[in-house]
# Entry
Amino acid sequence: MLLVSSCRGKKELGVYIRLLDERPSLEKVVPLSRSLDQPRPVSQRFFTSDREGSQEVTIRRGRMEDVPGVWKLTAEAKWNIHQDMIETHFKISENGWTVAEKEGDIVGCHLSHDFSDGLKTAGHFIVSSKLRGHGVGAEMMIKYLEEFGDRNIYSSSISYMLDTYEKYCGAPLSKGGTGGKYYGVFKNISLPPDTEQKYHTIDFRHIDQADLINYDTTYHVVPRPEMLKIWLGQTTAKSLVLLEKGKIAGYGSIRPAMNGFYLGPLYAENTVGTMVLFKAMVDLIPRDSNIDFFLPHANEAGREILKANESTVGLYDTFHKFATKSYIPVPKWNNVFALLSNECGLC
# Structure
């Protein structure tokens, strides 16, 4: 989303890169016990007016043929997602990409998505490490805000960057819930003995898609038929629907990442249903595979699952949901275990 966790300072990005390079070992991943209660040091960031590095940089709309370049930039930033996900984001937000190009190379990118005439989400904001600090990112964001600044823009940010974004937007942000970016191996998922009789899961393609859209809309209010069709139907994705007494009680999707798998979304009506669906998703992938996902801290099942797996799962960063004008949380935020994407979705 707009100015999301991709907007890292060099120090924080270096730490993240080292963590990724050390995978699958989690010995040096930030432990869960440190994560939720202890504040991180606040770094003061300022947008530079130095434009030397941005000379001969063209800011333009992204096109499908830019996928390899955006993927290369994403890989450089050590984001743990697969090129298939980049392509899927392009399909979902066909006209929503902005790229910065220099000498034929993609050196910056930004993604936005329209939900309505007055509401946008934005993210996947990256600038090449070679050009950071030279105004390329500022040029991209200035153009974006000039075009869409009158709309209500939903986004996420690493929590300690919020003050910087408020200064950049020129007005206080409307803040929402918090969450964490987690990564690790989930070995312990305990279920009550009667869950197999109460719940079962099926492939999403075997469900009436209108029913699935209606269920998703209970979370978002705004229907997302095309987004879900593309996201859940991605070739490499595996997507399940949770049924309770024949009715939809949740759904989830998992797909290959650069290292391990990316989980999202995963929504369910209660804690037990969430655990049943999460275990079913884990059973779809090779044993002891690493899973990467964004978890809202309000989710009760998430807290229980993280506690049960704290020796093999770590937190990289906390994030804060916000809007540039008015943040209205999705109706069932507490039922969200994993975000569809931290880039182009309300959750």
Observations:
- The chain is about 30% helix and 30% strand.
- The first strand starts at residue 58 and ends at 61.
- Residues 1-51 have pLDDT under 50 and may be disordered.
